[in-house]
Amino acid sequence: MSSREFLKGRGAQKNTENRFLQHVFEMRDDFLEFCRLEGEEAENNKTQYIPIFPKTIVNKVDSPDVGMGYSMNPYQGCEHGCIYCYARNTHEYWGYSPGLDFERRILVKKSAPELLEAKIKHKNWKAHTIVLSGNTDCYQPAEQKFEITRKCLEVFLKYRHPVGIITKNALVLRDLDILKKLNEHRLIGVNISVTTLSEETRRKLEPRTASIQKRLKTIQVLSENQIPVNAMLAPMIPGINSHELLPLAKTVAEHGALSFGLTVVRLNGAIGQIFSDWIKKAMPDRAEKVLHQIQDCHGGTVNDSRFGTRTRGEGKIAEQIHEMAQIARKRYFKGKVFPPLNLELHEQYKDGQMRLF
């Protein structure tokens, strides 16, 4: 397989059409051949950071399957490049492709801390856990440059407001100082995504994420500092990582995780096309088997949009995954509890300092 056929360091291998755009940009084979003969690059594979200026930053989550009430995303698009990511479809709303554009054109919300502060200071706002991030990773590589997530955590601490974090990047440990202060008031819970124990699988599925060892070390360090950690063993993909569920659960428990969650993969929207193209190039020997097993979990298709079943799946394979999860919880998480966050302090700190009278 030539380097032109498989783009290393990226998840998606092409840009799919944007369903909202009238015109379609197509990279033709004859143009690619011309570029090869001329020694030119057909397209720039470097990541672009594009500033945007939203009016709001906190989003109400209506889906009953997600398990959070409010979320916020300092970045749109994600350089991690996870091939299965459901957030890819949201890039279409910005006029980009959910394929390579999602990984290479990162939209940066520098005003996020100010927007967050205005939101939680509003007189009608009542404390609810706000999750960083419900869509794209708040500790993706862009965070090293812009530090928006850190500034948002400082806002949460200032106003004693509960916050959750979802990430698969060890960069979260950079902010351990703030996390420890938040945890003194039971205001923080961290969700670390661990999809596989195999580095080879990780590099294919999630090409620009932290290594598995770094993620396990992150769970360990957070736990040693009494910061509650939930491990996200998601998504479970039949034929790729679903057979790892029990050893995954055992390993994250040994490193200090208090609980774990999982979903069965679904390839909604354009992700079906992106994933199918990727797996036929990255894992050609098992591509059809994996796609058929995913279909078996969703009534014969790769996507199910029904609330209640879309993230659980159905059928024998999905049932086996959830049975293994029950065994894992009884075997490795007995007596462990992920604590609720503190909603009581924020009202006293709404003006930025403790009310004395």
Automatic annotation (TrEMBL):
Residues 64-301 form the Radical SAM core domain. Keywords: Iron, Iron-sulfur, Metal-binding. Signal peptide: none annotated. Pfam families: Radical_SAM. PROSITE patterns: RADICAL_SAM. One of its GO terms (molecular function) is metal ion binding. It comes from the Bacteria. SMART domains: Elp3. This is PA0069 family radical SAM protein. It comes from Flagellimonas oceani.
